[in-house]
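Technical annex B. To support the medicinal chemistry partners, we prepared a structural model of the target in complex with zinc ion, based solely on the information shown next.
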Amino acid sequence: MLGGEVLTEAICTMQTEPIPRLTTLLGRGARKKCPHCGKGPLFRRWVELHDRCSVCGIKYLENEGDLWGYLLIADRALFILPLVAMIYFQLYNPNSFWFFVFAGTVLIGFIFTLPHRTGMSLAIDYYMRRKSSDLSDPSSDKPD
Ligand SMILES: [Zn+2]
């Protein structure tokens, strides 16, 4: 029983390259680069995602909405929490100067880092897919 499992795993390992470290993937995501090769750009425009990497041909999102959706929600939630806290703060301190400074800073930070965080979410999605070896063969359908 065990022998068969080990063999299957060995074949899988031979077929695919080693999975890059998660920190490497996150770094590529933060730099808005393809998580697979680290070269191809992720975005066409601001946060408009390419379908595939222009360098290695990997499809960025296999099942759009699966894990990806949860990652984006978690990502947004991290920014919504301070906003909710700020609204409560504002109720007790109306017309506070610092409220507007803080709210503005969070909002600008949220908008400015959006593509970087989207890239990192994509890197996590890629990592999970590699871990579960649910990744379409990138060599089978390269862009022309
Ligand atoms: Zn690539």
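Notes passed to the chemistry partners:
The chain has one domain: 22-131.
The chain has five helices and no strands.
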